[in-house]
Design goal:
6 strands; globular; Rossmann fold; alpha/beta; 3 helices
Length: about 130
């Protein structure tokens, strides 16, 4: 059976009229930028557990469940658009890192979102992983 190496903690934050479920590993460290990890279609933030466990200890990692996925509210709609995800990501980043660049990783649909975000807000990106 798989043994988790680094335990996450979760919280709900209010973003753009939705209760957003966010998973975190590690804690902020002076001089170290956070790593935001965003999942793909039909996935959840907990899927990154294996990736986090393979990484070096001590990194502050933030991974949301996108709107309508996992424990994040869907709102009163049945369709989501990339502008929704981009605005949610921008609000999430501003919540945790109001100024300066971040490291950003996206998988699958999340990879599409992070690449679009890097094109729109290049000043917010130090490293991009798709």
């Amino acid at each position: 059976m798989y043994q988790v190496k680094y335990t996450s903690r979760t919280q709900f934050i209010r973003l753009r009229q939705l209760n957003y479920h966010v998973r975190e590993w590690g804690t902020p460290q002076p001089g170290q930028l956070p790593l935001f990890m965003v999942h793909g279609w039909m996935d959840v933030s907990a899927s990154f557990q294996f990736v986090v466990d393979a990484m070096q200890a001590g990194r502050h990692i933030i991974a949301p469940d996108w709107r309508g996925y996992g424990l994040t509210d869907a709102g009163e709609v049945d369709t989501f658009w990339y502008p929704d995800y981009l605005a949610d990501l921008d609000a999430l980043i501003d919540h945790y890192q109001p100024e300066g660049p971040i490291d950003l990783l996206g998988h699958s649909m999340g990879g599409t979102v992070v690449c679009m975000y890097a094109g729109i807000r290049p000043e917010r990106i130090r490293r991009l992983i798709n």
